[in-house]
């Protein structure tokens, strides 16, 4: 047996077993102040939607590489189920430390699945470059740091708990971009990071699933569920239509490009994630959906041609312009809409109160993105230590390094 396979046999299974023992011990003993995990809840329909979105939707959404389909779906599933258990453990620890209020088990589980979206997004940035051990370590570190970021926003800036979760897109995108910047660039002649019509088709299938279930994602923990669902759907619909229009306008031959549709149709859901519950007029959500699609498609051109080569970044799945830029736009839109709404209601007489609201929202945004970038860079450095057995750049983007292919007569 080649040494590289033996290395993973001696690391991945034992790491997973160690984590599962930790989770089992937690659920067996639990914490004394944590309430009944099985208390009644009406969140199951929305939870099921979000669960489908994160596991099935993102699993196929990441199938953009022609020789990395097994890992895209399989490892995404592994990370989600491990991460949800870790997140519930962190939730219970925060309750035990009196940092967070006690909640029902279904609500805690729903928050755990929503939080795992950050990991799914970050995974797209390092797709094909990180081995399973590195991905597991990255996921656990990211979840803990994301919860620390949420606690800072909730405790010091008084941001509502459901809104701190909506920073998941912003945090996941920029954490992933920072991590991938610490990985060596693949050699210019390596063509395994290309897509094929088949991989694009599966990836678009995942995009459609994410699109369909996104209203449940934005409304699952919102107080005004009906407004969140309607505004999210209108924003998604407009961003999808705008994606087809802009794709034809920006392509050299006037045809639709699958890469544009794959990323821009989701921009509306990301952009209104902060404000979907509070928008009172559908046309505002529609405008945000249009702007989200515009910034995604134009951002993909600028980032891939200017930003990424200059900073030597290879964002494999384009999570920066698919989730990062629309999240930045959504955060700015949330500040503007909040100022306009409060200003009109007070007839612009209480400017100090408006300034405080701007400070809180802007502070939460800056804290989230700076924490994601700084800790992402540190995590990227940690992932490349010898102990975690980083993959050589010539072996990037290939399933055969991790998965068995019985029909192949010659090993990798």
From TrEMBL:
TM helices/strands, residue ranges: 12-31, 52-69, 75-97, 133-152, 164-181, 201-221, 228-249, 283-303, 323-344, 356-385
Membrane topology: Multi-pass membrane protein
One GO biological process term: ammonium homeostasis
Keyword field contains Heme: no
Localisation: Membrane
Pfam families membership: Ammonium_transp
One GO term describing the cellular component: plasma membrane
Main location: membrane
Sorted UniProt keywords: Membrane, Transmembrane, Transmembrane helix
Keyword Membrane among record annotations: yes
Domain Ammonium transporter AmtB-like per the UniProt entry, residue ranges: 39-386
Family: Belongs to the ammonium transporter (TC 2.A.49) family. Rh subfamily.
Protein name per the record: RHL protein
Organism per entry: Struthidea cinerea
């Amino acid at each position: 047996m080649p040494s590289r396979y033996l290395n993973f046999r001696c690391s991945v299974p034992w790491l997973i077993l160690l984590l599962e023992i930790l989770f089992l011990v937690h659920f067996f003993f639990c914490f004394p102040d944590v309430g009944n995990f099985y208390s009644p809840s009406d969140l199951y329909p929305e939870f099921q939607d979000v669960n489908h979105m994160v596991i099935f939707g993102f699993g196929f959404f990441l199938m953009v590489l022609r020789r990395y389909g097994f890992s895209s779906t399989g490892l995404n599933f592994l990370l989600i189920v491990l991460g949800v258990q870790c997140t519930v453990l962190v939730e219970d620890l925060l309750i035990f430390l009196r940092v967070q209020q006690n909640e029902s088990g279904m609500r805690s589980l729903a928050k755990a699945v929503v939080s795992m979206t950050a990991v799914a997004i970050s995974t797209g940035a390092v797709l094909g470059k990180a081995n399973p051990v590195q991905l597991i370590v990255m996921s656990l570190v990211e979840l803990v740091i994301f919860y620390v970021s949420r606690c800072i926003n909730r405790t010091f800036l008084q941001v509502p708990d459901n809104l701190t979760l909506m920073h998941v897109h912003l945090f996941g995108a920029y954490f992933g971009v920072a991590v991938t910047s610490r990985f060596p660039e693949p050699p210019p002649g390596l063509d395994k990071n290309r897509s094929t019509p088949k991989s694009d088709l599966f990836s678009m299938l995942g995009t459609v699933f994410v699109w369909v279930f996104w209203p449940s994602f934005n409304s699952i923990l919102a107080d005004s569920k009906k407004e969140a669902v309607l505004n999210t759907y209108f924003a998604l619909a407009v961003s999808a239509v705008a994606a087809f229009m802009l794709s034809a306008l920006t392509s050299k031959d006037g045809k639709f490009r699958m890469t544009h549709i794959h990323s821009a149709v989701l921009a509306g859901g990301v952009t209104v994630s902060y404000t979907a519950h509070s928008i009172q007029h559908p046309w505002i959500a529609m405008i945000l959906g249009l702007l989200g699609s515009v910034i995604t498609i134009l951002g993909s051109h600028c980032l891939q041609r200017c930003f990424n080569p200059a900073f030597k970044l290879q964002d494999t799945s384009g999570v920066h312009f698919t989730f990062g830029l629309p999240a930045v736009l959504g955060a700015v839109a949330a500040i503007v809409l909040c100022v306009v709404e409060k200003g009109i209601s007070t007839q612009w007489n209480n400017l100090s109160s408006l300034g405080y609201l701007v400070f809180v929202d802007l502070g939460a945004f800056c804290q989230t993105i700076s924490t994601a970038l700084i800790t992402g860079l540190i995590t990227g450095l940690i992932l490349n230590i010898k102990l975690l057995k980083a993959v050589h750049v010539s072996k990037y983007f290939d399933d055969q390094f991790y998965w068995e292919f019985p029909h192949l007569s010659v090993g990798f």
